[in-house]
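Subject: Sanity check before I submit

Could someone independently write out the structure tokens for this chain? I want to compare against mine line by line before I put it in a report. The sequence has 308 residues.
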Amino acid sequence: MILSSGEALIDFVPTPQGDYAPCPGGSPYNLAIAAARLGAPTGFLGKISRDFFGDMLCDRLIQEGVDMNLVRRSERPSTLAFVKIDEEEEPRYAFYTENTADRNLVPVDVPPELPKDVECLEYGSISLLLEPEATTLKELIRREAGKRALSFDPNVRPLMVGDKETFITEMEELASLATVVKVSRADLEWMYPGRSGEETATKWLGLGAGVVVMTQGGDGAVLYSPQMKVQVPGYSVEVKDTIGAGDTFHAALLVRFHQLGILNSHLSSELTEDMARDAVSFAVKASALNCACKGANPPTIQQMKASD
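---
Independent answer below. Compare away.
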């Protein structure tokens, strides 16, 4: 099972009429749905409100076949995010998180042991910035390091970052524990201005990361490991918007590693160049198909096959 952990929220997405429509979202939440649609056993670990937005979030997970055994419900309200879409830029978000359900994940909400069928624990995004959830998840990540694959996406939201230097130090530690790091070119440019993606990937590999995969928008993606560098070009579609593109890429990458039988803590040493190209190509295609739709709408495995 691929177990996604962190925030589950409601994205308010602009409509052609000029207002906003509520859509279930959140980076780890989107990833869980994308992985399930692509045919992998998937679960979600997090806290979700009992309000009607929380019901919407849970109903979607159930509908998509995501395991709910590690979801906890709360009387606190749901986190809300308003999305601004600029044609020339990545989507921008305004988050409303005060005293909300998902940010109030505490240690008692996490089992002392994860189920044995969890191959991979995924983490990242704003859940690592908001307390007490951030500390709860960081303790879980440190506990599980070496026991199973860990996959990390910083998914930087600059407006939510307090001290940038402290933030980067924490992200580097979390990357050092990860079997897989998925990171966007835009995130690296914000974190390390003037430094190439390859320089950062080399640094993170030196810190302990297994593989680092950098997404490059329409230019595709590149995988770095201690043994190789694999570049994959973009997959051409008519882009409607890019909401959920990175989450879909991350999910598809993990699903393909799962299908190849190498989604474990030793992935880097088992990964061949052919496997790397296969997995990154699969993820690039899935992400592009998501961008061909409005909002976060990851493709199913049937849609992936139909577009071959």
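---
OP: Matches mine. For the report I'm noting this point. The chain has one domain: 2-306.
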